[in-house]
Design a protein that fits this description.
Number of domains: 1
Strand order of the largest sheet: 3-2-1-4-5-7-6
Number of strands: 7
Radius of gyration: 17 Å
Low-confidence stretches: 201-205, 222-234
Helix content: 25-40%
CATH topology: Rossmann fold
Number of helices: 6
Largest sheet: 7 strands, mixed
Shape: globular
Structural class: alpha/beta
Oligomer: single chain
Length: 234
Amino acid sequence: MSFPELSAISTVINSKSPTCNLLVFGLTHESLLWRSINFNGRTVFVDENPYAVSKFEQSNPGVEAYDIVFSTKVSQAGKLLGYSKTRPDCRPVQNLLFSDCKLGINDLPNFVYEVDWDVILIDGPRGYAVDSPGRMAPIFTSAVLAKSKNSGKKKTKTDVFVHEFGRKIERVYSDEFLCEENLIEVVGDLGHFVVSAAEEGGNQGNGFCRNSTKLSEPLSPVSGGDEEVGADDD
């Protein structure tokens, strides 16, 4: 990440200290920085690579890191987006632990679904090739975690950062689930959203945002690319 990107995230984490709950998708060069900045808070990492997770844990005793298997592929991004619009299981307020939505990550440790996350950073998994897992599921899951927070508590807003925001899939999925109206800044290739919890007793239905994304062109894993991505179910 660039210095302005690092600074934007660091500023928000510091503003939530000393009790910030930080969830990070992706183990990167910056992982130790996030843990250091949030030293007195709770930082949890999620990554697709079990070897990287194991090595990270061995090198940093006490760290919380978990590996998961993503069932999605970049090549399915368009079809999955359409699927999410028609499935009751893909609603914005729910317990993901029991969700059957294909975009919902439901195999994380149980506590992940119980914590009110203050900041979520999406910097993984891989999303640069058609057979990569893509960041569709982390974006959807982050939106649900933010929307499903206990609205009776004071911390009813979640700062969600999406790295590689310039890529088409990241941008479209962010607009669809984190909502364009919640985008407060773009710093370099980093999108910063502030998502409010759903009002208690409110009727969210299947809608995450005021305006739903309409796909007028195929989703491509590369920003500005012309390659059409198929919608297979493999």
